[in-house]
Design brief:
Shape: globular
CATH class of the largest domain: Mainly Alpha
Largest sheet: 3 strands, antiparallel
Oligomer: single chain
Structural class: mainly alpha
Helix content: 40-55%
Bound molecules: iron/sulfur cluster
Number of strands: 5
Strand content: 5-15%
Order of helices and strands: HHHHHEEHHHEEE
Length: 202
């Protein structure tokens, strides 16, 4: 049986092995998030929301956008946001024209928590820094294209990468230009979560 399993793993396609690897990485990240969640008494989705709001422009920090970002229902996000508001880690920033609509802001106690939470994946960063620049650049290039392609197929609902940005011109291979920055971008300068991103209208 053990030999059979070994044989199967040898003949698995490279794509399947990469998928396996991505699953393992995703599980490891989730486990790290859970560790932090236990320490600070908030759930992993609450941590993700808090980190997202702390690192993105206010216009997109609302329940609808967060539900798409994290691929969960609006009800799940609303419940998590309610707890974060109650604990005073987040506050509402109401629309001046419609007092039923609001975006989310991080409070000062939320910011202190964010400082403690944001290192949850530091062990990943440390291990990645042991690879040389070319290897990192290849990983990044492949990941950014994979994210774009999965977004085009509707699997990843939200992405803020250059390849889908109205300011991008280029061939998505080697020649990249940002019309907002008015600058050529090297492969490793392609963004996968750009705050200035604006979706291309087809
Ligand atoms: S604005 Fe940001 S996402 Fe858009 S092309 Fe420029 S760097 Fe890329």
């Amino acid at each position: 049986m053990a030999i059979l399993i070994l044989l199967i793993s040898i003949i698995l396609s490279l794509e399947s092995k990469i998928l396996n690897g991505l699953e393992r990485l995703s599980e490891a990240l989730k486990a790290l998030l859970w560790e932090k969640a236990k320490v600070y008494g908030i759930s992993p989705i609450q941590i993700q929301i808090l980190l997202f709001v702390a690192n993105h422009k206010t216009e997109i920090c609302n329940v609808s956008y967060l539900a798409k970002e994290f691929n969960v229902t609006k009800a799940t996000i609303s419940d998590a946001v309610r707890v974060l508001l109650k604990k005073e880690y987040l506050e509402k920033d109401y629309s001046p024209t419609d007092n039923r609509r609001y975006n989310l802001l991080v409070t000062s106690s939320g910011n202190s928590l964010v400082n403690n939470l944001s290192e949850y994946a530091d062990v990943f960063t440390q291990e990645l820094s042991s690879f040389d620049e070319q290897a990192l650049s290849n990983i990044f290039d492949t990941l950014s294209k994979l994210i774009f392609q999965l977004n085009q197929r509707g699997i990843i609902q939200v992405q803020r990468t250059c390849y889908n940005c109205k300011y991008y011109t280029g061939d998505k291979k080697q020649n990249h230009y940002c019309n907002l920055l008015e600058s050529r971008l090297k492969g490793q300068e392609i963004r996968i979560d750009c705050n200035e991103f604006e979706e291309t209208i087809n």
